[in-house]
Write a structure and sequence with these properties.
single chain, mainly alpha, two-stranded antiparallel sheet, 5 helices, 4 strands, 63% helix, rod-shaped, disordered C terminus
Length: 206
C-alpha cells in the first residue's frame, strides 16, 4: 500500500502498490495526479528484486552443480566403457593368439591329477591327452617360429606316446608329471602367435 498527500489540498491518500505511476484523481479536490513511488515502495521493490536475484543465483548454482555431477557421471561411464573395451580387446588378444591354451590346461589337470591314486585306465587317458596336447603345442610353436618349444614338446609327445609307451616306475613318473605340467603352463603363457607387423608409413626416398 502506497500512502502519499495530495499535491493541492494535502489530503492523505493511499493506493495499492500495483497503481504506482497510474493516473488518479483526488477525491477531496478533484485534481488529477500520478500515484507516486514512495521510499517504502522503492525499498520494497528493491527487496523483492534482491530476493529474486538471490533466488536466481541459487538456482543457477544448483543447475551448475547438477550439470557438473552429470558431466562427471558421463565421464566416469566413458572411462569405464573405455576400460572395459580395453580389457575385452586384451582378453581377445591374449586368448585369440593362444589356440593351445585350453588343451594345455586340460593336460595340466590330468598331469597334476596323476599324483593321486587312480585306476590304470586314468593313466592311459593321461597319455593320450598329454601326447595330443604336446603335438598341438609343438605344431603351433613351429608355426610361430619358436623352434625350441617345438623340439621340447616333441620330446614330451614321444615320452607320453600311448602307442609305444615308455614304462617307468611311479616314483619316476611323479616328478616327470609335475615338470611336464609346469612346461604346459609356461607354454600357455609364453607361446603365442606373433603380433602382425605394422607396415612403415614413411614415404620412400626420391
Amino acid at each position: 500500500m502506497v500512502k502519499f498527500p495530495c499535491g493541492r489540498c494535502g489530503a492523505r491518500l493511499q493506493a495499492d502498490d500495483e497503481l504506482v505511476h497510474v493516473p488518479g484523481q483526488c477525491p477531496a479536490c478533484g485534481v488529477e495526479f500520478l500515484v507516486p513511488a514512495t521510499r517504502q515502495y522503492l525499498a520494497k521493490v528493491a527487496t523483492i528484486k534482491r530476493a529474486a536475484r538471490v533466488k536466481e543465483a541459487r538456482l543457477t548454482a544448483k543447475t551448475e552443480r547438477r550439470a557438473t555431477v552429470a558431466a562427471r557421471a558421463v565421464a566416469r561411464r566413458e572411462r569405464c566403457a573405455r576400460a572395459a573395451e580395453a580389457t575385452r580387446r586384451a582378453a581377445q588378444s591374449f586368448f585369440g593368439r593362444r589356440l593351445h591354451l585350453v588343451p594345455c590346461l586340460i593336460a595340466m589337470a590330468f598331469l597334476l591329477g596323476a599324483l593321486g591314486h587312480w585306476p590304470y585306465a586314468y593313466y592311459k587317458i593321461l597319455r593320450w591327452v598329454t601326447c595330443a596336447a604336446a603335438i598341438l603345442v609343438a605344431y603351433l610353436a613351429c608355426e610361430y617360429e619358436q623352434r625350441w618349444a617345438a623340439w621340447l614338446f616333441g620330446a614330451v609327445a614321444i615320452l607320453f606316446n600311448p602307442l609305444l609307451p615308455v614304462h617307468l616306475t611311479r616314483d619316476i613318473w611323479r616328478p616327470i608329471d609335475v615338470i611336464t605340467a609346469v612346461l604346459f603352463f609356461l607354454a600357455a603363457i609364453f607361446i603365442a602367435e606373433p603380433r602382425p607387423k605394422q607396415e612403415s608409413e614413411t614415404e620412400p626416398p626420391p
